[in-house]
Write the structure tokens for this entry.
Amino acid sequence: MSATAPQRAVLRRITVDDNQAIARVIRQVSAEYGLTADKGYTVADPNLDELYALYSQPGHAYWVVVQDGNVVGGGGIAPLSCSEPDICELQKMYFLPSIRGQGLAKKLALMALDHAREQGFTRCYLETTAFLKEAIGLYEHLGFDHIDAPLGCTGHVDCEVRMLKTL
């Protein structure tokens, strides 16, 4: 009996049926890196189990990565709360180890930035942590610059890496 090769990963917009699967991915990756709810990381987000509803709002979008019928990653874009209306935030970029290193995070981020431009945003902000070295490298490669002070009111108190990109 031969094993079948994994199917090519597909990026698509989130559906309501993806809620539990993407929440599971985010929790698993957060645990892998020690990103706990008590520190204000994404796992503390009260909307984590309802991302479809959150990202169905105007100016919001979220994409999931599906491989072999399973959600294995995702990321999104949303207006930055408590901020100037032209700034959006790249949010909830999480990928299981099995699909890292295949360029899917870059592809998804570029889709999100294109969507942000189409929505009229002129700048994109993000917060992350120094633990996520590969993610920081990707964001730098995409043209994000490090900034000192936080923007908006994200509630991510331990996300000490803040970056901004002109769209």
